[in-house]
Amino acid sequence: ESSCDDTSAAVIRDGVMLSNVIASQAVHEAFGGVVPELASRAHQQNIIPVVSEALKRAGIDKSELSALAFTRGPGLMGSLLVGTSFAKGFVTALDIPLIDVNHLQAHVMAHFIKESDDDHNQPSFPFICLLVSGGNSQIIRVNSYKDMEVIGQTIDDAAGEAFDKCAKVMDLGYPGGPVVDRFAKERNPKAFTLNKPHIPEYNYSFSGLKTSFLYLLRDRIKEDPDFIEKNKQDLCASLQFTIVDILMDKLRKAVKDTGITEVAVAGGVSANSGVRSAFEDHARRYGWKIHLPKFSFTTDNAAMVAITGYYK
Ligand code: KG4
């Protein structure tokens, strides 16, 4: 996996994960976002040590591999090129099959990673999956391992991007999503009212929310230059509450219209505590059977790519 700013390699055997090594790139922190050229160069530095470490932790030699799966896209062009070139060279040398994997499908398939032989918590088909990451927000009807239908998606920004950009204007660092989550805990989610979009069907939009957040800060800072510092927690709580509310509104509609009450969430934003408690609340109130991924499988990782390749 090398689609964005994490270099990751995993080994699975018969659907069971033996190792999953992730090297994150701290180089982007100073810039408040991922710098594509720096990401590609960091992948180039990391990829061989990460693959070696994944094999070592799995306790196998590369000659024992029977196939290799890699992320073909979507993602940053330079980052993908590093992973793709490495994968092609590797399979050519070992004379094993190469399996291309769609990154978004892999996020959904993270629910099928087994950590042991007796791990049987996987969703059953069909189920609805909310995929929320830094680059995407989609509602997917998952009919089988290979048949996934996108029934709704963002028409502009992704939920993760809304978290990150709003955190950036508050100067909370990058990625801002986890920081907002931390500040939001136990504060007033109704302290500030932010814009919610009116978009048809199961689609999302987060650009209006970002603008309304920016204008709120701009207006209040005029009255009090320390407004952000004094209200950081309430701002984060209100932002998180609104994003989760937007996500759940459309998801509820999709579940109601399709009649499918088995519901999963995937992608980086599925680590968010507000998203998780909203899912638990919906399970109680509407009888949904929910699937929340383990934290280590929410953000980009190679185990999800390996499991997708395995079923492919
Ligand atoms: O899936 P991912 O690792 O990368 C993409 O493929 O986009 O998702 C990264 C996104 C970032 O926007 C990050 O801020 C967000 O996931 N994220 C969170 C949390 N943890 C990660 N957003 C809100 N709350 C969190 N706890």
Overall geometric form:
globular
Rg: 20 Å
Kindly report the average pLDDT value: 96
Which strand order spans the largest sheet, edge to edge or round the barrel? 7-6-5-8-9
Distance between the termini: 16 Å
Structure write-up:
This protein has helices at 36-58, 77-94, 103-109, 159-169, 177-184, 207-223, 227-258, 273-286, 302-311; strands at 6-13, 16-24, 68-73, 98-102, 127-132, 137-142, 148-153, 262-266, 289-291. By secondary structure, the protein is an alpha/beta fold. Strand 5 and strand 6 (137-142) form a beta hairpin. Helix 4 (159-169) runs parallel beside helix 6 (207-223), helix 4 runs antiparallel to helix 7 (227-258) and helix 7 (227-258) runs parallel beside helix 8 (273-286). 5'-O-[(R)-(carboxyoxy)(hydroxy)phosphoryl]adenosine (KG4) is lined by residues 4, 133-135, 160, 163-164, 175-178, 181, 267-269, 271-272, 299-300. Residues 4, 133-135, 160, 163-164, 175-178, 181, 267-269, 271-272, 299-300 line the site of 5'-O-[(R)-(carboxyoxy)(hydroxy)phosphoryl]adenosine.
Write the layout of secondary structure elements.
Blueprint: E1 6-13, E2 16-24, H1 36-58, E3 68-73, H2 77-94, E4 98-102, H3 103-109, E5 127-132, E6 137-142, E7 148-153, H4 159-169, H5 177-184, H6 207-223, H7 227-258, E8 262-266, H8 273-286, E9 289-291, H9 302-311
Parallel strand pairs: 3-4, 5-8, 8-9
Antiparallel strand pairs: 1-2, 5-6, 6-7
Helix pairs in contact: 1-2, 3-9, 4-6, 4-7, 5-7, 6-7, 7-8
Bound molecules: 5'-O-[(R)-(carboxyoxy)(hydroxy)phosphoryl]adenosine.
5'-O-[(R)-(carboxyoxy)(hydroxy)phosphoryl]adenosine binds at residues 4, 133-135, 160, 163-164, 175-178, 181, 267-269, 271-272, 299-300.
